[in-house]
Amino acid sequence: MAEVTLDLRGRPKAEAYAELHKHVEAVLEGLDDEIAAMSTMSCLLHFAFGHLWTGFYRVVEPGKLLRVGPYQGTLGCLEIKFGRGVCGTAAATRETVVVPDVHAFPGHIACDGRSASEIVVPVFGQNRELIAVLDIDSEHKATFDDEDRKALESLMAWFSRKR
Ligand code: SME
């Protein structure tokens, strides 16, 4: 069961996220490896919802620079400075950023022209240090809302938990 890649499209968000969260926990059971967790979460989130791009940018210079990590989708830009674009803004503020229309976000970095809306969630380690951001792009406008924010922040708590 744990090896399955779920397709949760068409299910109510609350139900889909609850099932996805359970599934991620089951797949990662007993594992203490951030890159394996990022890879697994990228895959499961991407295919569960049919997103355009789903993945992580890792903090490689705290307060300064993000570098691409495990992802699913077309080629992502390799590095993003703190404060630049949606990812850099979430990293600099340590807050989730929900962008209903990327064309209305000043400084948005377009890696794929089809991207229309986006959510970026900060990822904290066990000492509340920022270790990465989770970036999800959608081809449709206004895909993400507060329900996504809460569910994804809760999923990202995997990284700050003592394992
Ligand atoms: N859109 C992001 C850049 C990363 S990619 O879309 C994969 C941003 O503005 O931060």
Automatic annotation (TrEMBL):
Output the Pfam families linked to this UniProt entry: GAF
Alphabetized SUPFAM superfamilies for the sequence: GAF domain-like
Q: Which residues form a coiled coil?
A: none
Family, per the entry? Answer: Belongs to the free Met sulfoxide reductase family.
Its recorded name reads GAF domain-containing protein
Q: Which organism is it from?
A: Hyalangium rubrum
Query: Upper lineage ranks?
Result: Bacteria, Pseudomonadati, Myxococcota, Myxococcia, Myxococcales
InterPro entries referenced in this protein's UniProt entry, alphabetically: FRMsr_CS, GAF, GAF-like_dom_sf, Phosphatase_reg/MetRdx
Which segments constitute the GAF domain?
24-158
